[in-house]
From TrEMBL:
Keywords for this protein: 4Fe-4S, Cytoplasm, Iron, Iron-sulfur, Metal-binding, Pyridine nucleotide biosynthesis, Transferase
Top EC group: transferase
List of residues binding iminosuccinate: H27, S44, Y115, V116, N117, S132, H202, P203, E204, T230
Annotated protein name in UniProt: Quinolinate synthase
GO terms under cellular component: cytoplasm
Cofactor comment: Binds 1 [4Fe-4S] cluster per subunit.
Compartments where found: Cytoplasm
Catalytic activity, EC: 2.5.1.72
Domain of life: Bacteria
Residue intervals passing through the bilayer: none
Molecular functions (GO terms): 4 iron, 4 sulfur cluster binding; metal ion binding; quinolinate synthetase A activity
Reported function: Catalyzes the condensation of iminoaspartate with dihydroxyacetone phosphate to form quinolinate.
Length: 318
């Protein structure tokens, strides 16, 4: 796209945004041009809270479907738009409400902690919802003798289990295809090339579980390795004295890291860790969303009523 065309589109988007009293929320993995037009850019928890807090009437959600759905449930009076309906999530697709009901029947005493990367129907079957930013605190808020079903991400689940030392936690074997592909051997080989770098790992990563063992064994430097949500990674950089970072998450976040930290070097642990769903939102689609009021995300009332308690717990903790 030419520079002139791009600035024309951005100008139109701003005009329509004002006309419709809209706000643009964007996730840290979105395309650079989408990150640049966002009123709020952040991780899942930040965006869920921003959607609730805004006085705008329309929320254009530049992220994936479950995020827009969560915003719609938290703000039933606002219009939530997802510019591309195909922007899904392989992790959210790894468990259905029927599968969860069957799992609950096997563990009738357990409470359910669902990662935000789930459909509204799955949230409606859950007691607590969490994001990568507050999963540990949510589990810690549950009485120690209470059995837990944690879903759907096995890497996040085993990270939370290790940090909390929780024994009575069952973990669903789901994964995000993007993060599962970031392996410990890739991180180790990056460390050989960048021995002074700090390591930032998203807990959904395939390397997060093995990475913790490697840290415990001293194979990865514990003091320079951090397991963080995307938002906490960006916050961490504000205070870190290091100049070089190995980043184990979806590569879209590197744009923001470089923008906010000029002169520092950011290396992806796996340059192929690209989420196709997060790249579906483009400037022309954002403009169409505003002009044509599409695609409105609505959650049936019976589902959102049931999901509300779990989601409200998520936004109130951590
Ligand atoms: P964050 O909440 O850390 O932004 O993660 C969301 C996500 O989809 C990770 O793949
Ligand atoms: Fe889903 Fe993975 Fe994409 Fe995040 S990176 S939205 S978990 S597919």
């Amino acid at each position: 796209m030419s520079v002139a065309k791009k600035s024309e589109l951005i100008e139109e988007i701003q005009k329509w945004k004002t006309m419709r009293n809209a706000i643009i929320l964007a996730h840290n993995y979105e395309l650079p041009e989408i990150q640049d037009i966002a009123d709020v850019l952040g991780d899942s928890l930040t965006l869920a809270r921003a959607g609730m807090a805004t006085e705008a009437e329309v929320i254009v959600f530049c992220g994936v479907h479950f995020m827009a759905e969560t915003a719609a449930m938290l703000s039933p009076d606002k219009t939530v738009l997802l510019p591309d309906l195909e922007a899904g999530c392989s992790l959210a697709d790894s468990i259905t409400a029927a599968q969860l009901r069957a799992w609950k029947a096997e563990h009738p005493e357990a409470v359910v902690v669902a990662y935000v990367n789930t459909t509204a129907e799955v949230k409606a079957e859950s007691d607590y919802c969490c994001t990568s930013s507050n999963a540990v605190q949510i589990v810690e808020s549950i009485p120690e003798d209470q059995e837990i079903l944690f879903l759907p991400d096995m890497f996040l689940g085993s990270y939370v289990q290790r940090v909390t030392g929780r024994k009575n936690m069952h973990i669903w074997m789901g994964e995000c295809h993007v993060h599962a592909g970031i392996r410990a051997h890739q991180v180790e080989s990056m460390f050989k090339k960048h021995p002074d770098a700090e390591l930032l790992v998203h807990p959904e990563c395939g390397c997060s579980t093995s990475g913790m063992y490697l840290m415990a064994e001293g194979a990865l430097p514990k003091s320079r390795s951090h397991i963080l949500s995307t938002g906490k990674m960006l916050n961490h950089l504000k205070h870190s004295p290091s100049d070089e970072f190995i980043v184990a998450t979806e590569t879209g976040i590197l744009y923001q890291m470089e923008k906010q930290n000029p002169g520092k070097q950011f290396v992806p642990a796996n340059p192929e860790a690209v989420c196709p769903f997060m790249k579906m939102t483009t400037l022309p689609k954002v403009l169409d969303a505003l002009k044509e009021n599409k695609h409105v995300i609505n959650v049936p009332k019976d589902i959102s009523e049931k999901a509300k308690r779990a989601i409200e717990r998520m936004v109130s903790i951590g």
